[in-house]
């Protein structure tokens, strides 16, 4: 057998035996690479006589082409085999459920949910939302609300005060949402707005108090109506309708007890009837009472302090703890856990962010 034929048989054999693309590449380099066997043969052509070169050259080139073709044919076979092996080993179960994204796994805090619920209910009654800053002046938090300087009612509020500023003014963290009443009435006057005031003011409030039922930061919602004829009958209707809608019950029984707030006269606290059977609070049944809010007719001094003539205008207001009504509605037992930022708590008590509460679609379903 000539050397060329031997080389051909050996190389084609090696190609046929190559088990994968890497082995095949090794065979290619050994034959056709710079230092490969066929390349070495081609390099000898230069030293041959013209006759020899013609016959040998043609034979070597035929060998080179044969090997080239065998390499690409084998390569195609190996490629397909590799692909088939991958297809067999990598499986995709298209019947598996789709992995949930953030809008499905994230949860809204019950406080945010309850604020959305309150807003839906009161917006339906024609209220707008008013807001004020958490850092408030003593004047708006107390004085304009008829807490004169030195009045003992200020002591009821366990206020967080800031150090006095350059002008000697001592700012504070608002102890209730009632200063938003002041801001709303003053803005109404300043902007010469027509018509009645009808707002709710949800927001954060602060008092230096901490135990199982108190946290230094908590939430309130304030309601305020001022016009020429607002009276307690309207207030009772609004609160009753609110409680029915919020607690999602057909009937509520409410009890108005005389109370004291400097900014209302008369002042009342409101209880709703409930049962506490088995430690669970249920509204619309039972013989127990549960206090949920304070309210009253806006004090003439407050109207006057905010630019309204109390002989011409009157109004009523109420203030309610959002955290408390959230706990009551959703059976949350520990107030402090609300603000610990524990994601396990949130995934248990939280709400789907895209289930926006509406009166038509349901508040909490
Ligand atoms: N601001 C009161 C508080 O924090 C709650 C309150 C009571 C607000 C009566 C009112 C009201 O607007 O009329 O204790």
Structural class: alpha+beta
Q: How much is the radius of gyration in Å?
A: 42 Å
Biggest beta-sheet profile? 8 strands, mixed
In sequence order, what are the helices and strands, one letter per element? HHHHHHEEHEHEEHEEEEHEHH
Helix content: 40-55%
Tell me the domain tally. Answer: 2
Contiguous uncertain segments of 5+ residues: none
Instruction: Give the number of helices.
Output: 12
CATH H-level superfamily title of the largest domain: Bira Bifunctional Protein, Domain 2
Strand content: 15-25%
Note the overall shape. Answer: elongated
Examine the secondary-structure arrangement and name the CATH architecture of the largest domain. 2-Layer Sandwich
How far apart the termini lie comes to 89 Å
Please report the first level of CATH classification, the CATH class of the largest domain.
Alpha Beta
Number of strands: 10
Give the ligands present: 3,4-dihydroxyphenylalanine
CATH topology of the largest domain: BirA Bifunctional Protein, domain 2
Mean residue pLDDT = 92
List the helices and strands and how they pair.
Layout: H1 3-17, H2 21-32, H3 37-44, H4 50-89, H5 102-105, H6 110-124, E1 128-129, E2 135-136, H7 138-141, E3 172-173, H8 179-190, E4 197-206, E5 217-227, H9 232-247, E6 254-261, E7 264-275, E8 282-283, E9 288-298, H10 300-305, E10 314-321, H11 322-330, H12 343-349
Parallel strand pairs: 1-4
Antiparallel strand pairs: 2-3, 4-5, 5-10, 6-7, 7-8, 7-9, 9-10
Helix pairs in contact: 1-4, 2-4, 6-11
């Amino acid at each position: 057998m000539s050397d060329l034929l031997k080389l051909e048989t050996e190389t084609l054999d090696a190609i046929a035996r190559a088990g994968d693309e890497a082995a095949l590449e090794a065979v290619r380099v050994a034959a056709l690479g710079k230092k490969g066997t066929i390349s070495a043969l081609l390099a000898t052509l230069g030293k041959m006589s013209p006759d020899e070169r013609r016959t040998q050259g043609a034979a070597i080139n035929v060998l080179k082409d044969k090997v080239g073709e065998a390499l690409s044919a084998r390569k195609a076979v190996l490629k397909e085999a590799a692909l088939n092996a991958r297809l067999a080993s990598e499986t995709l179960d298209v019947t598996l459920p789709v992995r949930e994204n953030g809008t499905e796994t994230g949860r809204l805090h019950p406080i945010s949910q309850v604020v959305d619920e309150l807003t839906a209910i009161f917006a339906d009654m024609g209220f707008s939302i008013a807001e004020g800053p958490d850092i408030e002046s003593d004047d708006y938090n107390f004085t304009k609300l008829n807490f004169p300087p030195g009045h003992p009612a200020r002591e009821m509020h366990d206020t967080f005060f800031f150090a006095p500023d350059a002008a000697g003014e001592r700012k504070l963290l608002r102890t209730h949402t009632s200063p938003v009443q002041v801001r709303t009435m003053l803005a109404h006057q300043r902007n010469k707005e027509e018509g009645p005031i009808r707002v709710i003011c949800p927001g954060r409030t602060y008092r230096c108090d901490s135990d199982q039922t108190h946290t230094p930061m908590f939430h309130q919602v304030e309601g305020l109506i001022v016009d020429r004829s607002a009276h307690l009958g309207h207030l009772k209707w609004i609160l009753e309708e609110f409680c029915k809608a919020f607690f999602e019950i057909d009937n509520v029984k409410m009890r108005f007890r005389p109370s004291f707030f400097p900014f209302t006269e008369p002042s009342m606290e409101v209880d709703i009837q409930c049962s506490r059977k088995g430690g669970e609070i249920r509204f619309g049944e039972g013989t127990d009472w549960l206090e949920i809010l304070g309210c009253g007719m806006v004090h003439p001094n407050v109207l006057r302090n905010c630019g309204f003539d109390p002989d011409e205008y009157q109004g009523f207001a109420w203030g309610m703890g959002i955290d408390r009504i959230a706990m009551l509605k959703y059976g949350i037992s520990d107030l402090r856990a609300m603000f610990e930022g524990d994601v396990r708590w949130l995934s248990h008590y939280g709400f789907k962010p895209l289930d926006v509460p509406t009166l038509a679609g349901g508040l909490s379903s």
